[in-house]
Amino acid sequence: EAGVAQSPRYKIIEKRQSVAFWCNPISGHATLYWYQQILGQGPKLLIQFQNNGVVDDSQLPKDRFSAERLKGVDSTLKIQPAKLEDSAVYLCASSLLAGEDEQFFGPGTRLTVL
Amino acid sequence: AQSVTQLGSHVSVSEGALVLLRCNYSSSVPPYLFWYVQYPNQGLQLLLKYTSAATLVKGINGFEAEFKKSETSFHLTKPSAHMSDAAEYFCAVLNNAGNMLTFGGGTRLMVKP
Lengths: 114, 113
Fold this sequence. Notes:
A: mainly beta, seven-stranded mixed beta sheet, B: 113 residues, mainly beta, four-stranded antiparallel beta sheet
């Protein structure tokens, strides 16, 4: 079974530029998550989708971050414009359902904002 | 709101020694608790989870954790450390609505030969 795929693996941009990350979850997983992991910290949930609907985006900085999950499969996370403090690893995870179901994580995208 | 505290951002043990990684949680209801491991440049992998069944939970790679309500703890242990156990370990708690994991700050385990 293929795991969660993410691209790109690494991205370096200058502040005020835009960037987008892509995630392909495990086939059949209804729930998709985006996390931000700042160096030395645990992952922080940004947004959760159930199929193509948003379940929770309370910790998403909506003035600059946006995410979508068209057709309830792949998802993109966008930052526009980026700030220095956005430097982090962005992790995508998926689970069959929500709740205590195991979340399967992708390898992440490491973003550096200069 | 739920929260998780992991005591010790770095733990170093010798190969073959006992591994003990500490996790304390705060929750107003019986929690669902998780331990994840993260190897360098990889995503997180579930080690084990507690879902209000047995208080001693066995996971992969010889790890286990014990839920102690009186101490609000869910410490992770392994009797004998291997070099391959060197990684970052995260404790997490599921929120009351059952839709959000809150992670601790992580503990980096180093294993000396």
